[in-house]
Amino acid sequence: MENRSSSKVDTPTNISLGVGGLPFSIFEYKTISVFLVLTICGVGIIGNTMVVTVVLTTRDMRTPTNCYLVSLAVADLIVLVAAGLPNISDSLAGTWIYGFAGCLGITYFQYLGINASSWFITAFTVERYIAICHPMKAQTMCTVSRAKRIIAFVWILTSVYCMLWFFLVDVAANNSQQLECGYKVSRNLYLPIYLLDFALFFITPLLVTTVLYGLIGKVLLQSRALHHATAQGDLTCQPSLMAGLGRLCLISTEAPLSSFFLLQVTKMLAVVVALFALLWMPYRTLVLVNSFVEHPYLDRWFVLFCRICIYTNSAINPIIYNLMSQKFRLAFMRLCKYREEGLQRQNPYLRALVIMLCNRVYFSDTPSLLSPSTVGHR
């Protein structure tokens, strides 16, 4: 176990809770970490399960973009279950309790969920780019069947790639004789592997999505200017303009409501990408620095902060959908209403709990900067 500054989400620096600090500080760390991780993972598991359920059970929600969002929700569920929940047992027990097979399986699924989610974010960004910037091509390229093939390809490719981690992890005792699931390869071997992973599943997706959203923003600004001009009676949609702006010209003059929803969905997906970059930055920076320095930075509170950011990234997407997408919000409400009617015949106490969660967590009427009533307005 030569390398202890790993990139594993569950224990990225393999900090032992029994090393250093007073007993109270250890108890404090365990209490806070278990509470935060359990709360975030619980909300995330419920929210992502709802996303999968409403898309699969609602016919008008089965769009190419939503297919990618379902796959992203499944990847986030894998991260929350494989990374978040084992972190709770680590905090409570202070040692690895899942054995060698558990170390292999949990590490594999962590990376599978992490890597797949980054490419699904890239996939729906490409889909939005084609739909907005090349609307004529979108009629044949942006279809549900094509989205399903791309999703299957991403899952297969990522599953094969992540098998690499079966040969890199092992269970061993640390200096305090507590078991840890960590890496058994030397830093010289691990560093190029990590840098490849870093480039393929973080830097490349961010670069691609940044460029594409820049192009999307340019087209949407042109569409808004065109709509303003036609509203003033200064411009008529000519064939040349139709060739340049595609369906946006038609949308801006004849279907402002469709233009609003197009902008709403694009803003929602852009927020998802921005949060992915922001919430993954602390952890990626920590591991990148620890891969080069002789003495890795092992502050347990900062590592906990990095973990919480990762779990929050996997848990927050359903909340973003609810705040910024009217279709998702209505679908969530219908799902809660359906569950409420079923529970009404079974358990009145459980029914009251579901009503409270639906009203307070997902469907709050509190004004928000991200609410649909403010999207698209200045």
UniProtKB/TrEMBL annotation:
GO terms for molecular function: thyrotropin-releasing hormone receptor activity. The gene is LOC113448957. It comes from the Eukaryota. Its main location: membrane. This is Thyrotropin-releasing hormone receptor. Keywords: G-protein coupled receptor, Membrane, Receptor, Transducer, Transmembrane, Transmembrane helix. GO terms for biological process: phospholipase C-activating G protein-coupled receptor signaling pathway. CDD domains: 7tmA_TRH-R. PANTHER family: THYROTROPIN-RELEASING HORMONE RECEPTOR. Residues 47-321 form the G-protein coupled receptors family 1 profile domain. Receptor for thyrotropin-releasing hormone (TRH). Upon ligand binding, this G-protein-coupled receptor triggers activation of the phosphatidylinositol (IP3)-calcium-protein kinase C (PKC) pathway. InterPro entries: GPCR_Rhodpsn, GPCR_Rhodpsn_7TM, TRH_rcpt_1. PROSITE patterns: G_PROTEIN_RECEP_F1_1 (PS00237), G_PROTEIN_RECEP_F1_2 (PS50262). It comes from Pseudonaja textilis. Pfam families: 7tm_1 (PF00001). Belongs to the G-protein coupled receptor 1 family. The keyword Transport does not apply. GO terms for cellular component: membrane. It is found in: Membrane. The chain crosses the membrane at residues 32-56, 68-88, 150-169, 189-216, 260-281, 301-324.
